[in-house]
Amino acid sequence: MNLLKHILFFLMIISFHYSQCQEGTIFPKKNIQKGFLATDFLSIDMPNVNEKNMVLSGIHYNLKFNKFYTGLGMYGSIMGIRGGFFTLGVNTGFQTYLSKNLFINSGIHFGAGGGAGTPDGGGAFILPRINFGLQFKNFSLSSGYSYINFFDNGDIKNHQINLEIQIPFDFSSSSFKNAEKEFFFSDLKKSKWNKKYRKMSFMFHLNNLSVIDNSNYRGKIINLAGFEINSYINSNWFYFAKFDGAYNGIKSGYMNIILGAGHQFLLNQNKSSIITKLGIGSGGGGGVESEGGLLIFPDVSFDQRISNNIYVSINKGFLMSPNSFFKTSTFGIGLKYYSNINELEKKEIDRKVIFKGVEFIIKQDSYLNAKRIINDIENLHQISLQLNYHLNKNMYVAGQTSFANFGNAGAYAEGIIGMGLLSNNFTNENIKIFVQGLVGGAGGGNISTGEGLIIKPSFGMNYKINSIIALRTTLGYVTALDEGLSSPSISLGLSYRMAFLNPN
Q1: 341, 371, 387 - which closes a domain
Q2: DSSP letter string, 88-140
Q3: Coil, strand or helix: which one is 24?
Q4: What is 40-58 written as a DSSP string?
Q5: What is the distance between the terminal CA atoms of the chain, rounded to a whole angstrom?
Q6: Are residues 367 and 496 in the same domain?
Q7: Which of the residues in the chain have pLDDT under 70?
Q8: Cys staple from 228: which of 83, 203, 277, 415, with CB 3.0 to 4.6 Å?
Q9: In terms of domains, do 246 and 287 share one?
């Protein structure tokens, strides 16, 4: 009898161990990260007494950890005379509820940027604020006091009221160690991953702006390079974010950021589609006169599948200020990748699905002895955001944007894309070596980049701190193809890493 009890106990232990192994191996843990999207508005009283206020609009995404939050944000001018003013920075703060629907939000934004001739100094600024807000069913609204200070030899210092809208935006992911692991569809359907997927697309594109009405560049062609991300609400409707920078046609420094929504009409058994989009955003710089910077973007494009989830996209539309002061006709071509991430389809088929690695990298870049158009050579420092999408264990595509914060070049900015190669793990899987090459548009801030086309090769190391965060350092070189910038570069930053389920 005792022997039987021991056998039963042993079998129970084996069964429990097996179930744990099943959960850990077959069913990767699903992590749900709380977060929110936010947009805010500031009216800045400029140092020049006779100048209109510069109105800034910001777009942010923050991760929530109970009452604490942190994330990234960008600002662009939409009213005034400073079209082309852009910034990038880091958010941190606390949000706590005083009652069921009333909350207080205190935080600070550490940013970098400038442009459009503003007295931005080196570009570094702080933006603390305290807001009181009301929580509604699907969004929140808040307002309060804020202060902006371009403290690195800049003259923009102002107290102002701000207005903010927040929308909850959570996402699910798995540990980065699960990247490139394959699982059977039938097994994952038994897990928490068995929910409807989110359709997304990622596009690298070249766009030409034919200037119709602008005092400086009428009749000129402005060549842009950039990337676009689409996130689908359902099978047809989506919202998008579009980032572009000039690399040819005018002096360097022009860029635009557009947010909007669109509709996809599927054709030819989903191998082709016609897409309509309408966006709004901010743009200017490089001598382009866009007044306050507010731009609208109506567009029609045609997508054609060339291989699996890869499509060629051709677009035609307009990019213009609301009063047509700045008006361009647009034509472009892009390479688009469609992906169904995070969840599973409901179709009863058995096949393999895969987790894909994604990295969000925030870092500080330094260019040694960066050549200026006028005045002395000196080091250039900038805050940089890079997104890596891993194609496999050893290769990724990348998009990067950077804004100067120190070094008397506050208007300087970059928008570059490229690819990287990644080694296997070293030293107990804590270290990875990589090499990457990026190319795109850059300019502004008296940095000598000609018409703006730069290339930026580098190599570096990732050191794993934990399953989510890695320390990232690089050594490289940056050069403008038709002008004087030619400098060694170094960077140090953090990589926020995860894996998304891709059922394609």
Answers
A1: 341
A2: EEEEEEEEEESSSSEEEEEEEEEEEEE-TT---TTSEEEEEEEEEEEE-SS-E
A3: helix
A4: EEEEE--SSTTSPPEEEEE
A5: 54
A6: yes
A7: 1-26, 195-197, 215, 341-350, 427, 503-504
A8: 203
A9: yes
Single residue among 341, 370, 399 that ends a domain in this structure? 341
The CB density around residue 126, as the number of other CB atoms within 10 Å, is 14
Tokens 């548009």, residue located? 441
* Residue 99 neighbours by CB distance under 10 Å: 7
To 5 degrees, how large is the angle CA 119–CA 123–CA 126? 105
pLDDT of residue 21: 40
Nearest partner of 291 among 257, 322, 319, judged by Cα: 322
Total domains in the fold of the chain: 3
pLDDT digits (tens, 9 = 90+) for 213-253: 876 788 889 999 888 999 998 889 999 999 998 888 887 78
- Of 475, 226, 427, the C-alpha closest to 330 is 226
**Do 148 and 215 fall within a single domain?**
no
In a domain, 12, yes or no: no
Q: Is residue 395 part of a domain?
A: yes
- How many other CB atoms are found less than 10 A from the CB of residue 382? 31
Coil, helix or strand for 475?
strand
Note whether residue 179 is domain-resident. Answer: no
Is 14 part of any domain? no
Give yes or no: residues 337 and 420 share one domain: no
* E-strand stretches of 285-326: 294-307, 310-320
Provide the CATH number for the domain around residue 275: 2.40.160.20
Closest CA to 285 of 39, 485, 452, 43: 452
Return the amino acid letter for 332: G
Closest by Cα among 129, 126, 60, 127 to 95:
129
Contact between residue 282 and residue 172 where contact means Cβ atoms under 8 Å apart: no
Q: Are 183 and 26 in contact (CB under 8 A)?
A: yes
pLDDT value at residue 17: 41
So what's the pLDDT on residue 376? 77
**Residue 481: predicted pLDDT:** 87
Do 368 and 295 lie in one domain? The reply is no
State the residue range of the domain holding 158.
33-168
What is the reported pLDDT for 160?
96
Query: What's the rounded Cα separation, in Å, for the pair 282 and 87?
Result: 11
Same domain, yes or no: 310 and 407: no
* 212 and 125 assigned to the same domain: no
Residues 322 and 367 in one domain: no
CA distances from 166 to 72, 139, 142 (A): 14, 6, 8
